[in-house]
Amino acid sequence: MTVTDQRATFDCRQAFAEELISLASQDERIVAVCNDSVGSSNLVGFRERFPDRLINVGIAEQDLVGVAAGLANAGKIPYVCAAAPFLTGRALEQIKADVAYSEAHVVLCGQSPGMAYGELGPTHHSIEDLSWLRAVANLDVIVPSDPVQTRAAVRWAAAARRPVYLRVPRFKVPEVTPPDAPFAPRQAVLLREGNDVTVIAIGSLTSRALEAADRLRDEGVSVRVLNTPFLDPIDEDAVIAAARETRGIVTAEEATTSGGLGAAVAATVVTHQPCPMRILGVPRVFAPTGDTAFLLDHFRLSADGIIAAVKDVLGHG
Amino acid sequence: MTVTDQRATFDCRQAFAEELISLASQDERIVAVCNDSVGSSNLVGFRERFPDRLINVGIAEQDLVGVAAGLANAGKIPYVCAAAPFLTGRALEQIKADVAYSEAHVVLCGQSPGMAYGELGPTHHSIEDLSWLRAVANLDVIVPSDPVQTRAAVRWAAAARRPVYLRVPRFKVPEVTPPDAPFAPRQAVLLREGNDVTVIAIGSLTSRALEAADRLRDEGVSVRVLNTPFLDPIDEDAVIAAARETRGIVTAEEATTSGGLGAAVAATVVTHQPCPMRILGVPRVFAPTGDTAFLLDHFRLSADGIIAAVKDVLGHG
Amino acid sequence: MALLPPDAARSAGYRELTARIRQAAQLDRDTAAAQPDRETAAAAELARVATDVRRSVVRMIDRARMGHIGGDLSVTDILVTCFYGVMSVDPENPHWPGRDRFVLSKGHCAAALYSTLAHCGFFDPAELDTFMAPLSALNGHPNKVKVPGVETNTGALGHGLPVATGCALAAKMDSASWRTFVVLGDGELQEGSNWEAAMAAAHHGLSSLTAVIDRNRLQQGARTEDTNALDSLPDKWRSFGWEVREVDGHDHLALLDALSGSSTGRPVAVIANTIKGKGVSFMEDRVEWHHKVPTAEQVETALAELAG
Amino acid sequence: MALLPPDAARSAGYRELTARIRQAAQLDRDTAAAQPDRETAAAAELARVATDVRRSVVRMIDRARMGHIGGDLSVTDILVTCFYGVMSVDPENPHWPGRDRFVLSKGHCAAALYSTLAHCGFFDPAELDTFMAPLSALNGHPNKVKVPGVETNTGALGHGLPVATGCALAAKMDSASWRTFVVLGDGELQEGSNWEAAMAAAHHGLSSLTAVIDRNRLQQGARTEDTNALDSLPDKWRSFGWEVREVDGHDHLALLDALSGSSTGRPVAVIANTIKGKGVSFMEDRVEWHHKVPTAEQVETALAELAG
Ligand SMILES: Cc1ncc(C[n+]2csc(CCOP(=O)(O)OP(=O)(O)O)c2C)c(N)n1
Ligand SMILES: Cc1ncc(C[n+]2csc(CCOP(=O)(O)OP(=O)(O)O)c2C)c(N)n1
Ligand SMILES: [Mg+2]
Ligand SMILES: [Mg+2]
């Protein structure tokens, strides 16, 4: 049994919904916009409190994002709540043109991202979203790791006055964020000190990275664990310091590796401080059938996988 | 005046159309599918030769890609010809589900990619396409640099029996491909020998990389120039050899840097052979108004920009 | 993970049964009058298959503890009528080029599709036990790469009609006689991709294309008319250039008629009025059964109701 | 690269002229009868502005050697009637929250929009000379970040109606009286995103939303009816729950009437029958003038034709 199994874990949609309701009760500009996703985005409570501020456009993602941009034009602060694969895959050009390029203050909330919809298969997996959205200019990308970061992200986005994409985790995760952790663009969270190797992890992989670090400490390997709730803009200084001060970096994310965390860190490293890396994520294949936990293990996105990568980067593969 | 200015340059849509017509005359399964883009995809000649094999679905990109998948299901080999920003941005989920995940033999031809539609602005720029499509599993991504590679790509894709994305350059480029160059997945093209620094370039940047290398040779810097018409799957061996045998790598592409050539090379390098790099491409901003040549220079995607990056990576910045 | 192999014994049974149903259901072409007795016989056979499929759906969802039971039960009669009463397919040769194409655009109802395909002999029904289990070919949404009889991967709504339009276009280009069938959810029609394809299919005169709308008036979270109203649906399809037929989507004979070829040279939209959760009293027309999972007791009740 | 500043002198003239036009055009509410003389005066003023705008378009495209002249000339009367005859906007205060919203969904006709906005005083007409020049605020497609009077960035077709729907929804939520206008190309209606928004706008009863369709029957490469037929367009909009008005899109008085508020509580679709290239004889209704650039001689002829 792993360490994380023993701790309480959370579906972050609850923290998301609570924080949104709390914000909405203070700021009447806040509205929720969804695509027949009231239940799956956990918006039932929001609807009860603010029936007139929940807009359901039906199963129509292009309209969903366009409508949100229009609401923003008229002074609302829309939180678009839709399953991440459809929000990002189906409305990408609307995200680019109506939101990012138009500088609309729209908060795009990708619900159930990564492989949270495990058995529902690749059409329902949102593993490409980080690569897709990091390519869009003028859009911040936030990947919370637990309820604390989810709340902070919801709050931060309301005041951001700019386009934001926010992954809202559904796959249950334990609390990982220390009480005094920063939550801001370009600010990594240091979760473990260490000087042999640095593991940088986001989302569901953060707790797994911590478990890996704890187990490796018992083996005498000192692992620094960093977490970057802001994937974009990322904390380049923390990455460069890790490259300089430890012997290698392992990144871990529940996403394709082509353009997400691993790619962001690799680009920073080769530009400023080359060092060995291992990039963990979903390889370029469509996942087989299985639940989220099964798929994460299948792709070695586990403490074991991270431990193997750390040893590999140290050359004791 | 730069070296490239003195050579004949080509709009590759012509080579594309000629090759497609030649293939279609040999294989009646080949059809073209477009979205009110007969002229902009240079398909007038195709329509004259094969009026019944040119399908225009109107201005409807989701339908465009879905229809192509259906045609492939029934044994056709569809070449989808549409402006790259709309093909990739508007139909991304169709590309993922109907083509890549369904393993449909559809050739997605992104016309006028990069900033070819310069003055028409960011809605018409397709600089995100490489990041967007590299994130999709089971899809080859080809970025030809000149008419020779464009023809080879069109031919290769017909026999590929798998999903392919192919950028069809409109911005005029000179011939760069040597007569005996390979054209296959995982095969880089060596354009210049060199051992100080390696420049890896694709598309419109390839000729600019050659010009930079030639000018640097005069300054005593020996630059290896590689070109990878297959961005995915890329030639990892050539990248690793470059990282080992030269003192650094500069990548250059007419695309956002978050998940394209630079990201692919950086990931390979940090995993196998860390070395200093400079990643040239379009930064994460929406381009200002200007024609293609202006914008390329604006973003330092020029021989001058490459020369500066090479010197920078060598530490004589 | 490999492609499932066909079930030869079952597919022989399928050939025999479909032949019987079609013969029974056939109109007397000379008199253009129906033959009531034989029709009744066809309806009875189709009803038997539909009951088998519904029972299979309940068992699959019970075992997997996941699924979309309401839509499975509403679409079953449509699926069964298509495969047993109308279409030309060969379960032993699922890629036969001359086959009719069937696309389940509302891919979340994979359990009903898999049950139908297994019943026809596209693969061994024993495989249904693996629904959504690790490494199973039977994913929560249909994957053509793994499952014979599936023509394109669906699950994201709004993909089926464009792909079916492409199939029908190919048939027309080749002057082939095979037809294309696509089944859409009603809530799914809120996706604009459908209207793109509807317009293009009409423009190209794709009379071999039939779209069946599973008009159960419910979507995931509420009634369609309370979410984003679809009425008047026949007018929408007609204004997009389609021939429209409205039918009771649980009446096999009415479906058989409605699924006959186009009489106008235009593509045909069959608006099949259905009941979500059809056949299980406590699920019928109740939004929560979109994807609720029945308790052991509810499963027993459901199977009992579906027995007779 | 900075946001363009308003042109105070012009915007004063705009206020004066729009007041005159509206007064002249006003129906006698008591008798509900039109006042022919005053209407003619309004029409004459609008025609004058439209001519100015058309001439400006020709000059801009001549200078830039790029553009979409056919659609610019077909949409001009719609733009001018909206800005001068119908909408409440303040060129000196383009973000005034109570303004009417105007979205040019067919963003490729930016030259006509920029010319109209400059004419109103949203910015100095001298700026029009920079159309598509390096670092100009006046990109080939409208950028709201740079150009006052632009509400959302368009250029990719099929974006305007969803955004306009969002604007109108916000107005309704706030019980505000401002209206939202969106102008669509007819070929553009092949994009499914429009039908998603059309359905939702009707469902939400957005009576403050008016969509004007520039029905010039041509798209980029051919006639709409030869590419992907749109007829019967009124039926399509009606079946999606809209109030439909059909009008001559070059008749300013008819447009003024058609652009009045909804009489049914439903959103209003104004199908404006237009001629692509309107006003320049050799361009009218010819597909090649979608984005062909006139020669120096053709420019001269065009300006001469547009003088009278
Ligand atoms: C593009 C997309 N958006 C959202 C969903 C989530 N979803 C799955 S089923 C469903 C409701 C479908 O309703 P309907 O089409 O009426 O199907 P049925 O009633 O037959 O189940 C929704 C919204 C999806 N699968 N795809
Ligand atoms: C999504 C998208 N697809 C394709 C294009 C290319 N395009 C620009 S204008 C045009 C034709 C538009 O026709 P229509 O809407 O009738 O406009 P108009 O006739 O008024 O010029 C096309 C296909 C585009 N801008 N956006
Ligand atoms: Mg339904
Ligand atoms: Mg038109």
Overview of this structure, please?
The complex is a heterotetramer, with 2 copies of chain A (317 residues) and 2 copies of chain C (308 residues). Chain A is built from 12 helices and 12 strands. Chain A has 317 residues and is of the alpha/beta class. In chain A, the strands form 2 sheets. A 7-stranded mixed beta sheet of chain A has the order 2-1-3-4-6-5-10, sandwiched between helices. In chain A, strands 7-9-8-11-12 form a 5-stranded mixed beta sheet, sandwiched between helices. In chain A, helix 1 (13-26) packs parallel to helix 7 and helix 9 (236-245) crosses helix 10. The longest helix of chain A is centred in the N-terminal third of the chain and has 14 residues, at 13-26. The model of chain A has no long low-confidence stretch (mean pLDDT 96). With 308 residues, chain C is an alpha/beta fold. Chain C has a single domain (8-305), classed as Thiamin diphosphate (ThDP)-binding fold, Pyr/PP domains (Rossmann fold, 3-Layer(aba) Sandwich). Chain C has 10 helices and 5 strands; from the N terminus they run H-H-H-E-H-H-E-H-E-H-H-E-H-E-H. In chain C, helix 9 links the parallel strand 4 (243-248) and strand 5. In chain C, helix 1 (8-25) crosses helix 3, helix 2 packs antiparallel against helix 10 and helix 3 runs parallel beside helix 4 (110-120). The model of chain C has no long low-confidence stretch (mean pLDDT 95). Chains in contact: A-B, A-C, A-D, B-C, B-D, C-D. Chains A and B meet through helix 4, helix 5, helix 6, helix 10 and strand 12 of A and helix 4, helix 5, helix 6, helix 10 and strand 12 of B. One magnesium ion is lined by residues 185-187, 216, 218-219 of chain C. One thiamine diphosphate sits between chains D (68, 70-71, 74, 106, 108, 156-158, 185-188, 214, 216, 218-220, 276, 290) and B (35-36, 59, 83, 86, 90).
What integer value in Å does the Rg of chain C equal? 18 Å
Total domains of chain A = 2
State the separation between the terminal residues of chain C, measured CA to CA. Answer: 37 Å
CATH top level of the largest domain in chain A? Alpha Beta
End-to-end Cα distance of chain A: 24 Å
Q: pLDDT under 50 segments of chain A (min length 5)?
A: none
- What's the overall average pLDDT of chain C, rounded? 95
